[in-house]
Amino acid sequence: MERLIIFALVGLAAQAVDGSLGMAYGVTSSTLLVATGVAPAVASASVHLAEVGTTFASGVSHWRLGNVDWKVVAKIAIPGGIGAFTGATVLSNISTESATPWVAGLLLVLGVYIIARFVFGKPPVFIPGRRPGLGLLAPLGLFGGFIDATGGGGWGPVTTPTLISSGTLHPRKVIGSVSTAEFVTTVSASVGFLVGLAGEALDWRIIGGLLVGGVIAAPFAAYLVKHLSLPILGGLVGSIILITNGRTLLRNFDAESVAAYGVLFAVAAVIVAIAVRKSGGRLTDAQEPAPEPAAEPVNANANA
């Protein structure tokens, strides 16, 4: 029972981060599970199976709060599912370690760009009804799903910063849509893992604990996305990108140390503090994003 509670707390913490920032559920939960003594392979499979429930709860929560653009979800979810299933069944035995530092470096650059644009730059203006096209969403979903399945996490870190940095969709809509589409990629990856594991025993206490904690945290995380101010949202997303990918690079180059992690977290804290100050001390926006434009009624007397 004690371990079940621990796993539930892990799931709650991971979903609170992922649901509010659109990334890092896999990274957060896998890291915390391994720290509690769970084998890495079991941790990765357990996280994906638990995410079937947590991503569904997260998607419903974001939808009810108006954070989802369904046209974006449709265009990115299907390619994401294909990439995730392929990665989990066919390519899971191919090492992607050589590509890890390059992907981490690219995401780090995107994180810096997001911070520069939303925290230090002039707030961008988002045109209602504007959204990224299929030419970006399809390959991005395919790549994000593949990385997520083969790397034990990565859907959010790949898709969220890329879409936010494109400037074609409000960050709230990006996070809500990415979180909702993740349900499809998670189901696909889970089916692939079950096929690949071929009946290997899983600890359902881990999966159940992660699921319960994640479902509890999902509505709260979606509420934060709905109400956080744009500079703070951008600062938090950018900071998480810096920390997670900085950690990946430190590990890859055997440069991990308390001092290095201290610098990463100190930089993140300064960025968030600047974002709060830029927002005038407010955590929420004074105004909500403009709604989608409605079709103008036809005036029958216009040509009279």
TrEMBL record:
Biased composition annotated in UniProt, kind: Low complexity: 286-304
For whether the record's keyword set contains Lyase, the answer is: no
Q: Which UniProt keywords are present, listed alphabetically?
A: Cell membrane, Membrane, Transmembrane, Transmembrane helix
GO CC annotations on file: plasma membrane
Q: How does it sit in the membrane?
A: Multi-pass membrane protein
Record keyword Iron present: no
Localization of this protein: Cell membrane; Membrane
Q: What sections of the protein cross the membrane?
A: 32-60, 72-94, 100-120, 132-155, 175-197, 204-222, 228-246, 258-276
Q: Which Pfam families match?
A: TauE
Q: Region annotation Disordered: residue ranges?
A: 283-304
The family database entries (PANTHER family) matched by this protein are listed as: MEMBRANE TRANSPORTER PROTEIN MJ0441-RELATED, MEMBRANE TRANSPORTER PROTEIN YTNM-RELATED
Family that this chain belongs to: Belongs to the 4-toluene sulfonate uptake permease (TSUP) (TC 2.A.102) family.
- The name on file for this protein is Probable membrane transporter protein
List the lineage, top down: Bacteria, Bacillati, Actinomycetota, Actinomycetes, Propionibacteriales
